[in-house]
Specification:
seven-stranded mixed beta sheet; 312 residues
Length: 312
């Protein structure tokens, strides 16, 4: 006898949330999808309830390419379920999780606003800022600075292979911010003109290091060499229980990435997209500060916050 709606496809529901609302981030969509799942399921024992929910989390993680930030949302939900399961019945746990999950989704926008609030004092008049790729939370910070009548200009990396930097540039221009798109390879060329670097995050790991769009690591290396502050922006629900020591410890690593080719003819434009990584890892030593909804943190502060949450 099934314990959940036989017609509910959590991956399809998750995809629908992402497609319907461009502002929603993967971890928030994951929690929203899990809330809908438990609204529909009819488990009669706590074990059955937890198995269905964990199975749904595994299905989401394996079916989507945003596995790191999505995993963070799933982990938050599972931790809350684990806490509730020790003291409540199945129905009480279900109702409490629905309330907590719904509140989490509704408050996600406030988290982004809090990041902007904590980070905006670092943006000053006449600064030149370098941003990488497209990040909703970075754009939120810059929009807040514009509303505070601060005058600054921005370099945006093109961010291949999807050229997501162009989206950021278009939004900045719409805000009235002087903006220029640069080639990813031109980061070193413009760095001496830059006052600070702002990047978003796919996930912030236990060490305080950063997983983000490919190119973030080399950007951090160049910023440190040029003695420029490198700030990462992330909502606390993107803190993930990972401790990578190198690029090859990431969950997204594939053995065929950047593998040498033995073919006589290669379609290089398509091969570049297929065989290159989409994310990289920036160690904490390259990060000046993190702007989060919990406040302005040093990289080591991330570990403290994760310990508080998961060991509470």
């Amino acid at each position: 006898m099934t314990a959940t709606s036989s017609t509910f496809d959590i991956v399809e529901y998750y995809t629908g949330l992402i497609n319907d609302d461009p502002s929603i981030s993967p971890p928030v969509a994951a929690v929203g999808s899990l809330v809908r799942l438990i609204e529909l399921q009819h488990a009669t024992t706590m074990l059955e309830f937890m198995m269905i929910t964990r199975s749904a989390c595994d299905k989401l993680k394996s079916a989507t390419h945003q596995s790191i930030s999505l995993s963070a949302g799933c982990d938050v939900f599972l931790k809350q379920m684990s806490r509730l399961s020790h003291t409540q019945s199945v129905e009480e746990c279900r109702a409490a999780l629905i309330r907590a999950g719904t509140e989490f989704v509704q408050n996600a926008g406030r988290c982004r606003s809090s990041v902007a609030e904590f980070g905006s004092p670092f943006v000053q008049d006449e600064q030149t800022i370098l941003v990488h790729s497209y990040s909703r939370v970075v754009m939120g910070l810059l929009e807040r600075a514009v509303k505070q009548n601060k005058r600054f200009q921005v370099y945006v990396t093109e961010s291949r292979p999807d050229q997501s930097g162009l989206r950021a540039a278009n939004e900045l221009i719409a805000m009235g911010v002087p903006c220029e798109v640069i080639l990813d390879a031109a980061v070193g060329y413009v760095m001496e003109k830059v006052d600070m670097v702002l990047v978003g995050a796919e996930g912030v790991v236990e060490s305080g290091g950063l997983i983000n769009k490919i190119g973030t690591y080399q950007l951090a290396i160049i910023a440190q060499a040029a003695k420029k502050p490198f700030y990462a922006l992330a909502e606390s629900f993107k803190f993930v229980r990972l401790y990578p020591l190198s690029q090859y410890d990431l969950p997204t690593y594939r053995s065929d990435v950047l593998a040498f080719k033995e073919k006589s003819e290669v379609d290089w434009p398509n091969e570049l997209v297929r065989s290159n990584p989409t994310l990289d890892y920036t160690p904490p030593g390259f990060i000046t500060l993190l702007f989060t909804d919990l406040g302005v943190l040093t990289p080591s502060g991330v570990s403290d916050e994760l310990i508080k949450f998961f060991l509470d």
